[in-house]
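Re: nicotinamide-adenine-dinucleotide structure - here you go.
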Amino acid sequence: MSPFIADGLARNFIAGEWAEGDGGAVIAVADPGSEEHIADCAQAGEQNLARALDAARATFERGDLADMKPAARARLMMRIAGEIRGIAAEGADILCRESGKTLAAAQDEFEEAAQYFEYYGGVADKIEGKSIPLGPDYADYTVYEPYGVSAQIVPWNFPVSIAARSLAPALAAGNSVIVKSPELDPIALAMLGLAFERADLPAGAVSILNGIGRDIGAKLVQSAQVDQIVFTGSVSTGQSILRDAAGPVTPSLMELGGKSAAVVFEDCDLDTLIASIRSGIFFNAGQVCSAMSRVLVHRSVYEQVVERAAEMAGGLSVGHGLGNPDHTPVISAGQLQTVEEITSTARQHGARVATGGARLQRQGYFMAPTILADVDPASPVAQEEIFGPVACMTPFDTEAEAVAMANGTEFGLVAGIFTRDLVRAHRVARRLRAGQVFVNEWFAGGISTPFGGVGKSGFGREKGLEALYNYVRTKNIAISLKG
Ligand code: NAD
């Protein structure tokens, strides 16, 4: 066990040191697969927060990172990537146990986190401004400057990779960052502090605070010392943070929920589709913002798709994440209850349970892999984010009807199209209200492809080069040469 958790208590990482909490009772962290207590987590209170804010500000004002030669900052990012790989084996074991996900998925999270640092390390010395022609009497140019102190609030479904997704571009651009870890699975994320320590990141450039969202999370985003808010989480919390940001007019990036639809045409490859449904809605027990939570299918193949999807879902192996089964528990008893309730309400609205539909009677918070057929597109189960292993299927007759249904929620995170007709794929992709459209493979894309929402799925983009420009602001310098 690493020093930060040697005695079963994960600490806060503040200004390069592991700090005890001053925020009251420790957070007890449990294993969703066994319901057993794993460890405790120290909660940051106001003094911890003040220390993190002061250190972040001082680091920024001194220019420890912001004024570092960009090529040196790029090398630092690469060192961090290496150190993340160095803690990955131990970290993935913790992440698997505290989140319930498979060990393989937890290992992938650490690998993805390392890759974010490599990707943004590669561009840390290429954040180039423009020269703007104003005629012979002027010199005019733009520079991109870091915001200063970036407050980043992270959800529990991918705590390590989502934290890295925002940390890496922010640091590459020279910001200081304060991360608030999710209360349900904070430990693996806090462990990233070890990688920052070992890579010799300037102390204060990153602090990681553990604690309750409405308490220390709210105090962080409300702080006048924060120059930017990056929030990934639910719509209701995002709305609350936006209200907090309105007073000081703090620039904000919102990565919120989704209710994403796959549009399945009659000419698609059914094997490819079923493989995508399997990962699209059952990966991480459906607790993915961009999950394929709705499947809209052309009526001519609808019953066939429902039957094959139900057969696939019913055949998934189930177990504790450490055994790398196909299907794992949801994060908590509360989440299980929410998923089960919305699924049973769906029945009252006429949905047919093709498979699953209830919790599994075993230790841990397991919801059966569920396929709901004949879902009314206006019903709550088709409109609200479920965040569990439940796919809602609905037939359509025309392309126009399918597009209207796909666009018929308040969300707009991703969407998918399954067809062999690429002309149709391009046409429909342009009409779908979503930040990213997958064609013939759900979750196609990766760390280099921009990701973010439309409507209540939020605004701003993460991933890719585009995300880098969320972490800088443009300054124009206009110089008269008239003497
Ligand atoms: P949540 O909104 O409950 O919590 C997210 C984070 O916000 C947690 O760290 C929590 O402690 C903190 N928080 C809560 N109240 C706060 C407040 N008042 N001020 C500051 N911080 C506060 O979300 P969750 O249940 O952890 O995550 C699931 C949600 O996240 C889903 O809606 C999912 O779609 C969304 N999500 C979106 C993306 C994306 O990139 N768009 C990625 C992953 C998850």
